[in-house]
Amino acid sequence: MLKILKYSFYDLMRSRWSYVYFLFYLLLGVVLLFLNNDLSKAVITLMNVIIILVPLIGTIFGVMYYYNSREFTELLLAQPVKRSSIFLGQYFGVATSLSMSLVIGLGMPFVFYGIFNSNAIWDFSLLLVTGAFLTFIFTALAFVIALSNENKIKGFGYAILLWLFMAVIYDGIFLMSLLYFEDYPLDKFSLVATMLNPVDLSRVLILLKLDISALLGYTGAVFQKFFGTSFGLVLSSALLALWVLVPTFFIWRIAKRKDF
Amino acid sequence: MIDVKNLYKKFGKNEVLKGIDLTIDRGGIFSVLGPNGSGKTTLIKCVLGMVLPDSGQIFIDGKPLKNNFKYRNEIDYLPQIANFPGNLKVSELIAMIKDLRDSKATKDEELIALFKLQPFLNKKLANLSGGTKQKVNLVLTFMFDSPLIILDEPTSGLDPISHLRLKNLINSEKEKGKTILVTSHILSFVEEIADEIVFLLEGKIYFKGSIPDLKAKTEQPDFEHAIASILSSSYA
Question: ipTM score of the complex?
Answer without folding.
Answer: 0.79
